[in-house]
Amino acid sequence: MENILNKIGIGRKDAIPVSRSKDALYIYVRCSRCDEIIPVRISLKDEVQENYDTSKDKSCAFFVRKEVSGSGSNRCFARVSVYLEFDGQFKVIDADIKGGTFVEKAEYDASI
User: Fold this and answer.
1) Whole-model pTM?
2) Among residues 43, 2, 47, which one has the least CA distance to residue 26?
3) Are 28 and 40 in contact (CB under 8 A)?
4) Residue in 2, 27, 20, 14 with CA at minimum distance from that of residue 89
5) What percentage of the chain reaches a pLDDT higher than 70?
C-alpha cells in the first residue's frame, strides 16, 4: 500500500529502507568518505530504547542511536552516526544520518 501512495505523491518519499527479522532490524548505510556500504543490525531487544518523554509533543515511542564504521578495507575508519525513531510497532517514523546515506539492500547485495 505504501508504494502505491508514494507513486501518486501521498506517501513518504524519505522512507528508510529497512529489512526486519523476528528480533532485529537491518539497514544499510554508505560511508560518505569512502563509499563503502555497511550492513547494520539493530537488536530490538537490546539496543532500542523506550522514549520516556511525558510531554504532549511526544514524537516517538522508541529510538536508537548507533555509531558504525566500515571494515577498513578502504583504509577508512570514519564513523557514520545513525539515529532512528520508531512508533509502537517498531516502524521507522523518522531518521537522521551523519557521515553517510541510507541505501537499499539490493545495492548492498550488488556491491559484495
Assistant:
1) 0.78
2) 43
3) yes
4) 20
5) 82
